[in-house]
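Q: Give me a protein?
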Amino acid sequence: MQETAEILKDTTPLFTNDTIVFGLLMVCLGVIFYTSHLKTGFWNKFYKIVPALFMAYIVPAFLTTTGLISPEWTTITESGEAVSGSSKLYYMSSRYLLPAALVLMTLSIDLKGVFNLGPKALIMFLTGTVGIILGGPIAILIIGTISPETLSTPIFPTPAVGEFNDVWRGLSTLSGSWIGGGANQTAMLEIYDYNQKLYGGMVFVDIVVANVWMAIILIGIGKSTKIDKWLKADTSAIESLKNKVSDYAKKVDRNPTLTDLMILAAIAFGTVSFAHLGAGYLSSFFEDFVNSLEAGITRNIFTFLSSSFFWMITLTTIIGILLSFTKARSYEGAGASKFGSVFIYILVASIGMKMDLMLIFDNLGLIAIGFVWMIIHAGLLILVAKLIKAPYFFLAVGSQANVGGAASAPIVASAFHPSLATVGVLLAVFGYAVGTIGAILCTVLMQLASIS
């Protein structure tokens, strides 16, 4: 039986030059910040409801949806040949600007204050993990009852030898992504041998559901005070840390000289350079170690150790924490965290441009499974937060450390205060370690749910 021919569609956006796209994103960020600081009128009321960080995320998403820009595209030439293209802005911002932002935001961190936040941050992170593990099989049971055809195994495209089309195998890659990250997602793809020709559909579900959930979390940040009152949360430890860092920043505040700015640039991008260098060696070393293990689950559990992104984030965080015990900490007064925040907003915009809102209507059955899955994850987080009176900060960061990983958790954490970015990073790194184990447990339950 032959496969049906794939119909190619030209999806070239209006702007494909990254220089133009980057300028467009920066103009959007500039307009957002200008309007968000107006003291009167419509915009003043608007930003009391919608946070500027959410707008920095959703405006690029609209630009992608309308076809002005795109993270990747296919161009059909006059001869009928399909040529693929992609933007490198997300790679640039996540590999260069994210580590630079993390070290600048960590310079003034009070590590003792972070530990004084108590166990609630870890409890909420683990609750988010449990929510993903339980959410997958429950979502399959619910959507499978309403729409059985969603779980039916597709005939096309025919998998290669050793691959399978079972939907639960594809969903296993989501569980890996939503507990650990990209390395764990890849590990699940290898463990359960899902048909790689169908894998793109699961990536769509990942992008749509995870990004919509992140948007909801960002909106919640603007209402965190009201949410904390409803949760009856004790935010004293968080406020104490924020005030302590803010007081220190005021104490060392100065009008930065050109020398200050150049030293900040040296600290930021020198760290980026060292982190990439170290990540290259460490990922290669651990890749050899992982490959030396016996093929199977044990090898895949440790796959994250061969991820250069994991080591880049880990090394950056360690360097930032070490520098916080030196005189480099005083550069907070020269605007270290402000420059870090600029880089974070650029990263947010580049993440936003990955989101095509029309993807929600592609394969509605799988999208529905994803949304039900995320609702269960969110519901469990809210329930536990209410029971232990955890602040919304722990709920938001605990969730994003699972679902968004090291690229998103610091964004959400720093939205509360730049000094809190490290909390998001530490939880996200922990997520890498438990990602594959949790995803395997989730997949076993999804397989049982699929055949029940």
Summary: Residues 1-5 have pLDDT under 50 and may be disordered.
